[in-house]
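Extended Data, record Acyl-CoA carboxylase subunit beta
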Amino acid sequence: MADHRTAMLEKLADLDAEHAKAVAGGGEKYAGRHHARGKLLPRERIELLVDEGSAFLELSPLAGWGSDFTVGASVVTGIGVVEGVECLITANDPTVKGGASNPWTVRKIFRAAQIAEENGLPTISLVESGGADLPTQKEIFIPGGKLFRDLTRASARKEPTIALVFGNSTAGGAYVPGMSDYTVMVKEQAKVFLGGPPLVKMATGEESDDESLGGAEMHARTSGLADYLAEDELDAIRIGRRIVARLNWQKATAAPSAYAEPDEDPDSLLDLIPADLKEPFDPREVIRRLCDGVSPTNGAVFDEFKPLYGTSLVTGWAKLHGRPIGILANAQGVLFSEEAQKATQFVQLANQTDTPLLFLHNTTGYMVGKEYEQGGIIKHGAMMINAISNSTVPHLTVIMGASYGAGNYGMNGRAYDPRFLFTWPSAKSAVMGPAQLAGVLSIVARAAAEGRGQEYDEEADAGMRAFIEASVEEQSLPFFLSGMLYDDGVIDPRDTRTVLGICLSVIENKPIVGTDRFGVFRP
């Protein structure tokens, strides 16, 4: 519909504006100063590092949105293909406070490290950081040590770690090249030391300069910290690519040779999603635009499982970029006992056949009420969450619309560790809808007043409800949630097929093995 498309395009324009803030980093002044020193910006370095013509899937670009820190959290993270190898790439943004790490930087890098570990990816760190943002050190210092632990554990798992050092790598930042398997430093630019000349002067009284204390040439010739000395940034990137080319990297699963494009144009997704989340839409139409179309080898686009039972949850089998997937998609919003039992069986079947699962959210949660409580909605919902929690095949999640209450849990929300989770600009997530939450608080307050024998203030109640509704509405919006790192990015619905295709390829770096072990299913 035209009004659906118009509303979504407006949301996408807002998304572009927020992404532009992350790309701008510290702004034109500091970007210009960086270029004037003959240095590249972080995304420019990444563009030269990854294979020409390949995609770079940026992760958590809105980290820190709504906080006092620059959108993007002074670091770029994502997955790119280097010499044919999918790698987790992190790049400090030195235009934002010299690349110093703030609390959101740390959380963003932790999430990137988790993705590398779960999917068995090599890590490439493009380093230029002044260390911790000192005014917020109390939030960084103690948890920040996990960053270095993650690097050494990755090495122990035989997942190579590579550091390309382009500028300052000070204090805790010095441990990134120190704990990486391979370290490349740019001549006359890289400076790696635990304490710079001023700190050394304060601590020991020793006079020193940057080059003798931590310059690239010193580390290449004297300390041995640098494995390679690059002439300039382009040379460092060239060396980094050659290191990856020599890793002898093999994926666990061979890529499919061919696949059919969707039968329906993904562009028409913008016509499907209503601006009002109370208005239902058919997730089968979304599936037709995400998954491979009919082909001689593929057969039907979507083989629906249990189509006549538990009809507010659609389940079935499909292929996406030639790779088999199982899909669970909310149809009419509410999850009843039948839907929960259907989902539980479907998750078990996916684990039996080692098939990854895709969750498409548009749910207001599990049904409430006396009839449903007596019918066992709690135990059936718990059964579904049990299956999701203990499933070992990779899970991918896309929040298309509403994702409220325990429905967020049952549909594999962030707390249930999907390999990747992306959000559409139309999405909202909260414990319940704004009006419902405000109404519940109003009922509780009214009952409390009656219990005290007091007259209830209706005017104050109306103000309270309006304030709560506005607050919950703001806090359930995708930019806010993405800023909190509750997803891996807000994406254009038209890009969903491509994004999921990259994710499905990435998960193939490790064997896909389902489980037959679940918690106790309450009868």
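Summary. The longest strand covers residues 161-170.
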